[in-house]
Structures are given as C-alpha cells and as structure tokens.
Design goal:
By secondary structure, this protein is mostly helical. 66% of the residues lie in helices and 3% in strands. It has a two-stranded antiparallel ribbon with strand order 1-2. Helix 2 crosses helix 3 and helix 3 crosses helix 4.
Length: 147
C-alpha cells in the first residue's frame, strides 16, 4: 500500500497525535527534511512505541533522533575500521607477492604466479589488472600529448 505524501507539518502533527513529544518543532522539521521520516521514525520510532500507532508516555523526538544518530556513528566507525583492515591486508599481500616474485617483471600479469587450481580466477584478475594498466597508460599518453 502506497503512503500518501505528507508535508513536514503534517508529519509533525501525526507524531504528536501518536503521543510523541516534540520539544523543538523547527529542529524536528529540519531532521525530517534532511534525514527523512522513513529513516528516522520508521527505523527507530518503533523502539519507543507501546502499540503501532502510539508512543510510550514521555517518548520524545529527540530520543529517537539520538538513537538514529548513535547508530549512524556506529556504522561509520565499523566502516572506517573495515577500510583500514582492507588497506592493511592489501599492503601485506602486495608486499609478500612482490617479495615472492621480485625477479619477475610484471609477475602479477603472469598466470603462473597464481594457484594453478584457480587458473580461471587468476585470468580474470590478470584481465582486470591489464585493463587498469591500459586505461592508465592511455590517460598518461593523452595528458603528455596535450601538454
């Protein structure tokens, strides 16, 4: 069932009718406009409800927003940690690969540098490396020719 469009004022009125305390209407409107009703209310409001259409006594919009922003911070922290782990592991793998094949120029483009039982995976990886190199070589040539 498709929901009817509601203005920010109508959204605020609906929340108030359902028993939610909204200390600062203008601030609530900004949050709803920039973070969206669905993300904030449908995502986190349920933790403050005693029934689907009513909030527990004393529940406030600020509490829902605090929970929303708290989870956003957790997501950012976990994502940043995952990026750091990925960078760390890629660095180690690149170092160990280069160490293993130090005498081979472009060993990463040679199928024999990879597990022979996974040759098709290796060929896909080599193809990706090759395409990246072609793009960068063409870019560098264009930059040098145009300058």
């Amino acid at each position: 069932m498709q929901k009817q469009f509601k203005t920010l004022d109508e959204q605020i009125s609906l929340l108030k009718e359902r028993g939610l305390i909204i200390p600062d209407t203008n601030k609530a409107k900004r949050y709803l406009l920039t973070s969206n009703y669905y993300n904030i209310i449908n995502g986190y409001g349920k933790y403050f409800q005693d029934s689907p259409d009513h909030y527990v006594t004393g529940a406030s919009f600020n509490e829902i927003c605090s929970l929303y922003f708290f989870e956003e911070e957790i997501k950012k922290t976990v994502f940043n940690a995952a990026l750091q782990i990925e960078h760390h592991l890629k660095s180690i793998v690149a170092y160990r690969f280069a160490e293993q094949y130090r005498d081979q120029k472009y060993a990463f483009l040679n199928p024999s540098s990879y597990n022979p039982r996974k040759l098709s995976d290796a060929c896909r990886t080599i193809n990706k490396f090759s395409n990246i190199l072609k793009i960068n070589i063409n870019l560098n040539c264009q930059i040098k020719c145009n300058s």
